[in-house]
Write a structure and sequence with these properties.
The chain has 629 residues and is an alpha+beta fold. Helix content is 35%, strand content 20%.
Length: 629
């Protein structure tokens, strides 16, 4: 009995051990495959397309079930590295495997570019059919227009091919090779051109060499076509014009031949040489050194890479070089005249520490004061000061408040093929009509804090009606909302549609017990639901397979949000009509100015930052220049 029991126990142990090893093996295999795919995605995202293709092919060999998605990525890698001809077989394999697992955006891209790939492979009839298919089914209006033009070209391609040719093109040995040879230009009886024939370093995007500048030199007159191909080819410009690990191409020369301009890329990484600083490009070298943009999408929350042209790198930096002292982390809470009530002798400015619990106070005396705290900061302070310390301020203070009649709508997707955070924060604007504009705004991948304030949009009604609508939305599509609410890397998977409209609504600010109070003085009351804005948001969300979300204050309380509050201290020809004159000087006081968004008296319907800068520059240009600085 004991021997049998021990034998059974030993067999059980062996079986358990075998199962454990088998589980470990498959876990390791799965992890390895997953790691290969993730690495392929990473290489694709950084535009190292040749590496990505190799990794995708390795992954596909072990995961044939992913044929459609992976072959699509391989085709896209070839296309994005200007090898569209080689993309065709992979686009074809994608369609043969079925496109049901592709996103709407990827399917649209596939439909258009498989037609382009057929065309470059000289399969003109098939290409024409595919372009016709795209015109019917495509969702990108720009590509549909291009597809229609392609159809018209392909209908005439035979006629074009049969047309008499009056120019004969003859390749020259040494100049024309199996490599990429392009962009020729004549310079001092030499032909300077670009080529990737030198293979000392490999560009990860294509697996080929980096472009360099070459020259074709001949002892005869280059206009003599009888000996046009007789000469020598060599690197032109040496290391000065041909930097290792970068593309140097497309040279052009000044009329006198003394100046050359050419294109130099990064090192194969689409972020370029973002880790290297260059001299100030904006103010003739007077500003600080800068770095290249990394396209991280963090422009709005603060550039961490010394690439954005922010105040501390332009106005404040240049002012500091002239001797200005910038005292940071201070909140001004009192300004009152010295001696004369009109401020002729200057002002006392009293501030407190804004970043500590113990609010240490500081008092400054100054001849001139410029308020530049933004609309909310400036209005909050001036409305308080008007009650006692600066009573002569115009009664128009706090009036003529404008918004851009805005809607800020988050569009969130759970589709892992999207990285919406990559790029500059605002890179495009859509003019919907003459008074309506739409910007796509991105934030960097770490901007997940927004998530906690988001809810689906609902329309009208009282609080209970809105909550009922909200619950209904969650119940009718619980899985979709669960996915976008809990999605990993919220910053990567969300983009904000900033909708702006020019309307003539006016509000006013007044000082409340704890905060500024808002009142409608003219026009229609701004609302949190703008039908056109949400129609556009729905269309955008469909394209990325996501859902539109808004701030919870809009969903629950019908309180609209704005990114561009303006007015409150607008210009006028006298104290009854405005708070400041045309030079931004405050009516009722000497040596007092306002220079920020509160001076803007109209609703521009677009981002007002350049308008504010222009008004401020105009005001500063009318201050007498101190020659001794």
């Amino acid at each position: 009995m004991n021997l049998k029991h021990q034998s059974q126990k030993g067999n059980s142990t062996k079986l358990f051990l075998a199962l454990g090893l088998l589980f470990a093996f498959f876990s390791l295999l799965f992890t390895s495959c997953s790691s290969v795919y993730q690495k392929a995605e990473s290489e694709f995202d950084r535009a190292a397309y040749n590496k990505a293709i190799t990794l995708y092919q390795s992954y596909l060999a072990k995961n044939p079930a992913k044929t459609a998605e992976v072959n699509y990525k391989i085709a896209e890698a070839y296309r994005r590295s200007n090898r569209l001809q080689m993309a065709l077989p992979y686009y074809t394999k994608t369609t043969e495997a079925g496109t049901d697992k592709l996103t709407a955006g990827d399917l649209d891209t596939l439909r258009y570019y498989i037609a382009k790939a057929l065309k470059v492979n000289k399969k003109y009839e098939e290409a024409k059919l595919q372009f016709e298919d795209y015109v019917k089914l495509g969702i990108n209006q720009k590509l549909k227009t291009l597809a229609q033009a392609e159809i018209e070209n392909l209908e005439n391609i035979n006629q074009i091919a049969e047309t008499n040719q009056y120019v004969t093109v003859v390749p020259c040995d040494g100049i024309n090779t199996e490599n990429s040879d392009f962009a020729p230009t004549k310079w001092m009886n030499k032909l300077v051109f670009s080529s990737d024939r030198r293979k000392e370093a490999t560009y990860e995007g294509t697996g080929q060499g980096f472009y360099d500048l070459y020259s074709f030199e001949t002892s005869t007159d280059m206009s003599d076509t009888t000996n046009a191909c007789v000469g020598t080819v060599k690197i032109w410009g040496g290391d000065v014009f041909n930097k290792a690990g970068t593309h140097d191409a497309s040279a052009t020369f000044s009329p006198d031949g003394q100046t050359v301009i050419f294109a130099r890329s990064g090192n194969g990484d689409k972020k370029g040489e973002s880790d290297k600083e260059v001299d100030d490009p904006y103010f003739g070298g007077k500003g600080p050194r800068r770095s290249a943009c990394t396209f991280c999408g963090g422009c709005m929350t603060g550039c961490r890479f010394n690439a954005k042209n922010t105040l501390d790198k332009n106005y404040l930096y240049l002012a500091q070089k002239l001797g200005v002292e910038v005292i940071a982390e201070q909140e001004v809470y009192d300004v009152h005249p010295i001696n004369n009530a009109n401020g002729q002798d200057g002002y006392f400015v009293i501030s407190k520490k804004s970043t500590s619990l113990l609010k240490s106070k500081s008092t400054f005396s100054t001849k001139n004061v410029i308020f530049s705290g933004g609309v909310l900061g400036t209005m909050n302070l001036l409305l308080k000061l008007k009650k006692k310390k600066l009573p002569n301020l115009s009664n128009r203070l706090g009036m003529d408040i404008r918004t851009n009649n805005e809607a800020l709508i988050f569009n969130i997707t759970a589709d892992n093929s999207y990285n919406l955070s990559e790029g500059i924060a605002i890179g495009s604007i859509l003019d919907v009509d003459k008074s309506t504009h739409l910007e796509v705004v991105r934030y960097n991948k770490s901007s997940g804090f927004w998530r906690i304030g988001m809810l689906p949009n609902v329309e009208g009604g009282n609080l209970f009606h809105r909550i009922a609508q909200l619950i209904s939305k969650y119940l009718t599509n619980p899985l979709a909302y669960l996915k976008i609410t809990t999605v990993n890397n919220f910053g990567n998977k969300s983009a904000v549609l900033l909708f702006m409209q020019h309307i003539d609504t006016k509000l006013s600010f007044s000082k409340g017990l704890f905060r500024l109070k808002t009142s409608l003085t003219e026009g229609k009351k701004p609302v949190s639901q703008i039908p056109l804005a949400y129609d556009l948001a729905e269309e955008y969300s469909k394209k990325i397979g996501g859902k539109p979300m808004v701030f919870l204050s809009e969903t629950l309380f019908n309180i609209p949000s704005t990114a561009h509050i303006l007015g409150g201290a607008v210009m006028g020809d006298n104290i009854k009509n405005g708070v400041i004159d045309k030079y931004n000087k405050v009516f009722g006081y000497k040596n007092l100015m306002i220079c920020d968004g509160s001076t803007v008296s109209a609703n521009p319907g677009v981002n007002p930052s350049l308008t504010i800068s222009a008004i401020t520059e105009h005001a500063m240009n009318n201050i007498p220049y101190k020659r001794d600085i």
